[in-house]
Amino acid sequence: MVDGGVQPALVTYNVVLHVYAKMAVPWKEVVELVASMKDNGIAPDRYTYNTLISCCRRRALYKEAAQVFDEMKASGFEPDKVTFNSLLDVYGKARRHEDAIEVIHEMERAGCPPSVVTYNSLISSHVKDGLLDRAIALKGEMEVNGIKPDVVTYTTLISGLDRAGKIDAAIEEYDEMVRNGCKPNLCTYNALIKMHGVRGKFPEMMAVFDELKSAGFVPDVVTWNTLLAVFGQNERIEPHNWLVKTLVLVNSKVNNLAEAEKAFLELKRKQCSLDINVLNAMVSIYGKNRMVKKVEKILSLMKESSINLSAATYNSLMHMYSRLGDYEKCENILTEIKSSGVRPDRYSYNTVIYAYGRKGQVKEASRLFSEMNSLGLKPDVVTYNIFVKSYVSNSMFEEAIDLVRYMVTQGCKPNERTYNSILHGYCRNGRVLDAKLFVSNLPQLHPGISKQEQQNLFEVLAKHTQR
């Protein structure tokens, strides 16, 4: 940190420590950094100590966390909620439940009462270790202290009781939750669906599923996969076709190839009619995984079924070939879209621009940029990021920064990926000082950037300087 002859300040050390905590850097390196900090005459502050305790979490270093906590108090710093919650996280990870309870008591003595988040963390660690009676007692304790259990509290207990086979107790928790006016969330409903389903209680399971939808929630991949797994384990009951089709769509979206293919094969086994949405989902997931032959089989199936390719089909095909580096194939498909009467969208152009950009074909990418503009398709942040990355890959940093300036004038807000492309590019080229200058001057380049966004970039820069 002092190679450039500049003495780091407290804030610099704190940023690096924050990065260390996120990266789970070995404790020895953390200690060495703190020693260097003290050798340079810089005393830790409360933020430093809180971050040091966070550094102990991933590796469950409860002894080290306790030492930091003691040193913090000895140095005259009063622990705050961040301190106590970080320490509780460490003790929870280390399964030091009695120590965690003592932290709760110390919080109360320090005039820093635990919050619902504090109790939820404690209850969760007890549930994970099967200490359900103690977890339920903690819920009672929080109520005595005037803290209402929330949806996280109840869902954690319901899931734990379910795993322990205590179904009646889990239902009691759910009933109490509803009585107290605490609304279930999607995780709660998923837990109840699983609880009833694995025990063959299908009417109860489907009643919860209906309640989930009535409450305004959209089933997620966990919901659908739980339902299919339950039906799969009970061969006497056939899953509805709509359920299996939905599973193809949902699993394709989250790129869960095994489950999407399993559901697709189930549809074929049942000789269900395969519509454009299902087939597009399979083209998409096979394309994401660069499985060209399987994509071609789906396209053949669409042709046999007289199903016309849609914009979504074409986009998936271009996405696959762009990731394979075949920009000529991508543009051929774009040409085919236009000749087929299907209107290409922004995603279509972005995909082909990406294919050219990653191969350094900036001129061809720029041609398509002009073409999409002429069609009234306004470039978005994805479009601009492709060009920024392409410029950076060719060490054209001035052009990249000018483009960021231009996108801001066009009302398109740069995002983290925009800035990271330039930042990583500078660092890869050994231009760390230029990277620091770039981050420091961002408020002039983009007045709308928040202090938190800029702080995040300084943290990324700190990671590079530690390599």
TrEMBL record:
PPR repeats: 9-44, 45-79, 80-114, 115-149, 150-184, 185-219, 275-309, 310-344, 345-379, 380-414, 415-445
Gene3D superfamilies: Tetratricopeptide repeat domain (1.25.40.10)
Pfam families noted in UniProt: PPR_2 (PF13041), PPR_3 (PF13812)
UniProt keyword list: Repeat, Transit peptide
Transmembrane segment boundaries: none
NCBIfam families to which the protein is assigned, alphabetical: PPR
Family: Belongs to the PPR family. P subfamily.
Name of this protein: Pentacotripeptide-repeat region of PRORP domain-containing protein
Organism this protein belongs to: Leersia perrieri
